[in-house]
């Protein structure tokens, strides 16, 4: 799965966390540079997931990227730029960390995992 990340100047351990979920970084925009804030009309081809780091983005930039994802029917998550917040958002979106035998998303069994809430 290819993800576009918007927000955060540096990613730190985030690429490692995404790799554990089977996600590769397709493109990263810091959102701080004025060229990154200009209105783009499409997300890059091959993008399967949009990740917005909310503590580094303005409301208008976030809204624009959310609308682009909705138009192109691309899933998106929004979270703070921390490993814990990212893991929680990915798990909440139904993605599993590490391949597991019971997970249909990772080629495992045909029964979904029941999670306690």
TrEMBL record:
Q: Which InterPro entries match?
A: UCP020408
- Write down the superkingdom of origin: Bacteria
**Pfam families attached to this UniProt entry:** DUF2325 (PF10087)
Protein family according to the UniProt entry? Belongs to the UPF0751 family.
Name listed for the protein in its UniProt record: DUF2325 domain-containing protein
